[in-house]
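Chain A, query sequence.
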Amino acid sequence: MRRLFFFGLLLLMTFVSSRESSAQEEPTVYVIQKGDTLWGLSERFLQDPYYWPDLWARNQSITNPHLIFPGQRLKVYPDRIEVETPAETAAPAAHVEQTLPAETKKPAEEAAPVKTFTVSGGEGFLVENGLKPSGYIVSTYQGRQMVGEDDIVYIDIGRANGVEVGDKFSIYRKMGAVSHPVTNVILGYKAVPLGTLQVSEMEEKVSKAIVTKSFQEVGAGAFLLPYRPRKLEVALKASDRDLAGYIVETKAGNKAIAAGDVVYLDLGKQQGVATGNMLYVVRDVPPDQTYALDKIEKLPAEVLGAVVIVETKENTSTALVVKSIDAIYRGDRVELKRNR
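Chain A, predicted structure.
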């Protein structure tokens, strides 16, 4: 008799637990309104705007993260957001938080505001094999070792190179070689932006120029590239594939990396990376076998933060760290899994 009592109690507890679990899984249904963005919805419901790449990756119906439609329905769970399929939309919902006025219920294509990041334009990059500079600073006024803003320099490009008076160039210094933290293969050389110059006088193969802006001291040997504006707006952009690589170096050379720092990755155009792609920074967690019944081969990776690509080369790219939950280091992995 006692066994039957405890067996019945166990069944009741299991039933109640199952009902509670189901209740906890009952989503709130939210109807997208004019002006909504994935970024804003993630911040509103999950208190983390950086979750939106997960929302985007899990829902194939969202082909453009900045093009969502008034009238689309979202199922909001405590730990995730899902887009309802047409079949689900026909089913009764547990709770509708917000609906659209009757006159706006019909979905209409409307571009949501694009989430952008402002970068200074002085993030630098890795110089890969094959990069051909526009020219070099070959001398400075009166042979000075270092010059700055409004000083005169001489460059080895002129009329024969199609240069005209008034043309602008960005100035860079080539730094030490950067090796891959895992393979030790040399990926390139770090290029640090020094400033800008403008051609003032020309000859056939050389020109005189004035340093119009200097961020660091400028000297002979610095190389030139076509002028690029300092401040740039980088809009988030979808990736059409999974991405996986490593942080190989930082602009400042610092060991511990945090939000706001600039890093260089071993991913470029050849690997499918594009300006505006957001990737997670992850680190593998070594399994502790002490309490495991069976051998654990691998644990889920720890998410440390997120980076946004601001410039791409053939096999490397420059990225801005936009979020750091913990200290990030050279050699940490970056990835984007669109269908996880």
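The two ends are 50 Å apart (CA to CA). DSSP finds four helices and 23 strands in the chain.
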